[in-house]
Amino acid sequence: MPFEERVRIVSALKCVDVVVSQCAYSPVDNLKAIKPDIFFESTSHGEKAIQYHRDIMKTLEGKMIVIPYYPTQSSSNFYFLRVNFSVAIPGIIEQYGLTKTVLGGAASAFFAMYAVGQFLSGQMADNIGPKRMIAFGLIFSILVSLIIPSFAGIIVLVTVLWGLNGIFQSMGWAPSVKIVSAWF
């Protein structure tokens, strides 16, 4: 999802006053400039950074909430497993002589199945739990991404596998929204 879209969604929340694009890794300059009432920090930044940011928030008389980071449940992981096909297309064309049109059809299978999967993912997450759903989607997306190179010259199989990846990729968004909505 493009950054602008994420900003629009988060900005629409009644509890959010401002959304900032952070160019630097450290949020310190933004914290001092904005002086937020609440600052969310991920455990991915490490204990030293978390304590430093907690101290800054105390001086600003604000509250800091630390959110656990689960590498297997990050939406960025889904993104990397989504763009790998487009990166491989030039090599597939060169090695197997397939056309961009044919590979475009395979790529379209991904988006069609992703759309179908969006309708199913929310319901499935309610039944099996959002964390399991995200982990399941990531694991199977990884497997598909590892299998595809073995069959890169068989376009029908690539299309089916990439379509399956679309379904597995759709297992990221709805469950993530369910998890985040519990915070509000």
Question: Any overview of this molecule?
Answer:
With 184 residues, the chain is mostly helical. It has two domains: 3-69, no CATH class; 72-180, Up-down Bundle (Growth Hormone, Chain: A), CATH 1.20.1250. It contains eight helices and two strands, in the order ααβαβααααα. Strands 1-2 form a two-stranded parallel sheet. α4 runs parallel beside α6, α4 (75-96) runs antiparallel to α7 (155-169) and α6 (130-147) packs antiparallel against α7. The chain is elongated, with a radius of gyration of 20 Å.
Reconstruct the topology from this structure:
Blueprint: H1 3-11, H2 28-34, E1 38-42, H3 47-59, E2 63-67, H4 75-96, H5 100-128, H6 130-147, H7 155-169, H8 173-181
Parallel strand pairs: 1-2
Helix pairs in contact: 4-6, 4-7, 5-6, 5-7, 5-8, 6-7, 6-8
